[in-house]
Amino acid sequence: MENSDQLKEIVRQKYSAIALQDKETNQASCCGAGGCSTEVYNIMTDDYGAIEGYNPDADLGLGCGLPTQFAKIQKGNTVIDLGSGAGNDCFIARKETGEDGRVIGIDFTPAMIEKAESNTRKLGYTNVEFRQGDIEKIPVSNNVADVIVSNCVLNLVPNKDQVFKEMFRVLKPGGHFSISDIVLVGNLPEALRKDAEMYAGCVSGAIQKEVYLELINANGFSNITLQKEKPINIPDDILKNYLKEDELNDFKNGNTGIFSITVYAEKSKTCGCAPGCCN
């Protein structure tokens, strides 16, 4: 089993390559991990086309939901996007915040930051910025964000508990988040769980839905709400790379499920002296 640093390096290498691919290539893959299916559609993503602020050049087809659609962003808000990629959700958030707002994208991969900054220059935005950093140590001061969004990113991070702690720290009292992610119900087969490509492809890094929601609760958030949930059906030609025929049948006929969820939660306006609240 890879350790945390090794898993991060897998993600860094994969997403550096993805930054150079076009959307069509990514849509034929497991969340951009590679051309692993003959069925040319993206397993995870929803359609951004009708959302205001959408910029096709910034859409690499890597998400698993539409968190900005549910994020309740207001004019003048400061919004942070964790795992901002080429800037897709940042630019949609910027449409919501307006010129008086501020949007900060955080991404682990230098190639993604470069692509996002290039897109920002093309659009002429002066209130959108991108910072390279690990979302286990978000490069933002305490109590900065009104809203945090993230799209199919936390499942790639080894220490999800630490990410939620950091989210709590950087949100203002009364702030909130809306994040889309991949979770499991039941036990993922070992061959799928440990494979590096599937980890970078969003599935093997996922944790149990109940555990995911409990991490949010344990880190001080309130009003936790599932805004959307949909099953992720992985095509047989992908699963056959990892499972024998009998294992494939057991997996498809069992109680295991892979889901995309969009979850909302708030940081209380009067959160006492919880970490990141009073400082």
Structure description:
The N and C termini lie far apart (38 Å). Strands 1, 2, 3, 4, 5, 6, 7 and 8 form an eight-stranded mixed sheet that branches. This protein has a single domain (4-266), classed as 3-Layer(aba) Sandwich (Rossmann fold), CATH 3.40.50. The longest helix is centred in the first third of the chain and has 15 residues, at 4-18. The model is unreliable at 26-30 (pLDDT under 50). By secondary structure, it is an alpha/beta fold. It has helices at residues 4-18, 23-27, 67-70, 88-97, 110-123, 160-170, 190-194, 196-200, 209-218, 236-239, 245-253, and strands spanning 78-82, 102-107, 128-132, 145-151, 171-185, 207-208, 222-231, 257-266.
Short description:
With 279 residues, the protein is of the alpha/beta class.
State the main characteristics:
about 280 residues, alpha/beta, Rossmann fold, eight-stranded mixed beta sheet, globular
Helix content: 25-40%
CATH topology (level 3) name: Rossmann fold
Could you state the order of secondary-structure elements as H and E? HHHEHEHEEHEHHEHEHHE
* Alpha-carbon Rg, integer: 18 Å
Write the layout of secondary structure elements.
Blueprint lengths: L3 H15 L4 H5 L39 H4 L7 E5 L5 H10 L4 E6 L2 H14 L4 E5 L12 E7 L8 H11 E15 L4 H5 L1 H5 L6 E2 H10 L3 E10 L4 H4 L5 H9 L3 E10 L13
Parallel strand pairs: 1-2, 1-4, 2-3, 4-5, 5-6
Antiparallel strand pairs: 5-8, 7-8
